[in-house]
Write a structure and sequence with these properties.
434 Repressor (Amino-terminal Domain); 3 domains; Rossmann fold; 6-stranded mixed β-sheet; alpha/beta; single chain; 12 helices; 331 residues; 16% strand
């Protein structure tokens, strides 16, 4: 026979409603009462169900993480930090992977009973933030933002990292600089391009159109774009990539065509994902604490759910340049 809250109440010497309140950590109950109930529940093997918790509190304690850019390895590395932060705060993470963040995605999120959502792959022209706002579902931007709706956000400032990287590249004698930039309909694609162009301009260096390629943040884009750049009559001696995943593709292209990195061409990424530091990769890259950024987004999501009137929070993480083996002197 299944253990019920009545059984726990009898063992703990409290009423049945007190059991539910104690297991929800109701602040109106004394610590001694809550401890007595928890000990009785543990002894009997009783766990307060999610359904019961939702009925009593009006919340499911479930937060969705929406990821639409499925080819971008970056998002594989932020799932665990978001999960751990939410778990520590008594919330459950539900991962939603879609090919697009259109209106139907919002309907599915609402149908699954989310208390809130972390938007990890928002595009500038996405309708999801508008739909979430209109439906009253709290949400937080993680890494990418939209100008259509202001909301809590954790973002990256690429300027310090690009400033340091370009300064070091100039010291190495680089003058012909190329770039494989991210999508123009993402806030990250726009901010990183602006930061790179500004840093180059500070040293009197242009980012010539013939040396620029754009595309989604995936390895295939980096491979194809750098293959084109290396085939030019006068190829760039240094290529900045929109992120590390694109840089992996750039390294593949160089290796396949017999171009040595960094003797013939230098390559710089962005994000400093764990594989970037592997001895076989040794990618020079622009780094920031993406794990803490993910945790902060989770914290902001919980705060927005529990305190809807709290002022908006825009948390910005700074960047640094990490020099490794893929940056060398200009050939």
């Amino acid at each position: 026979m299944a253990v019920t809250s009545r059984d726990v109440a009898r063992v703990a010497g409290v009423s049945q409603p007190t059991v539910s309140r104690a297991l929800r950590d109701d602040p109106r109950l004394s610590s001694a009462t809550k401890q007595r109930v928890r000990e009785a529940a543990q002894l009997l093997g009783y766990v307060l169900s999610d359904a019961g918790r939702a009925l009593s509190s009006g919340r499911t304690r479930r937060i969705g993480l929406l990821v639409t850019d499925l080819n971008n390895e970056f998002y594989h590395h932020i799932i665990a930090p978001v999960h751990h932060e939410l778990e520590s705060r008594g919330y459950q993470l539900l991962l939603h992977t879609e090919s697009d963040d259109n209106g139907s995605v919002v309907d599915r999120l609402l149908a699954n009973g989310m208390d809130g959502v972390v938007l990890a792959t928002t595009t500038i022209d996405s309708t999801a933030p508008l739909r979430l706002r209109d439906r009253g579902l709290p949400f937080v931007y993680l890494n990418r933002t939209s100008t259509q709706v202001d909301a809590d956000a954790t973002v990256v400032d690429p300027v310090p990292g690009f400033t340091a990287a370009v300064r070091r590249a100039v010291e190495f004698g680089h003058r012909r600089v190329g770039a494989v930039l991210g999508p123009t309909n993402t806030s990250t694609g726009q901010s990183r391009e602006l930061a790179l162009r500004s840093a180059l301009a500070d040293h009197g260096l242009p980012l010539e159109t013939r040396y620029v390629r754009r595309g989604p943040y995936d390895t295939a884009v980096g491979d194809a774009a750098v293959s084109e750049l290396l085939a030019l009559p006068e190829p760039p001696t240094l290529i900045f990539c929109g992120n590390d995943v694109v840089a992996y593709g750039a390294l593949n292209a160089a290796g396949r065509t017999g171009v040595h990195v960094p003797r013939d061409v230098s390559i710089v990424g962005f994000d400093d994902l764990p594989p970037a530091a592997w001895p076989i990769v040794q990618l020079s890259t622009i780094a920031y604490d993406f794990e803490q950024m993910a945790r902060e987004a989770a914290r902001l999501a919980v705060r927005r759910i529990e305190d809807p009137g709290a002022p908006l929070s825009h948390t910005t993480f700074t960047t640094t340049f990490v020099e490794r083996g893929t940056l060398g002197t200009a050939g």
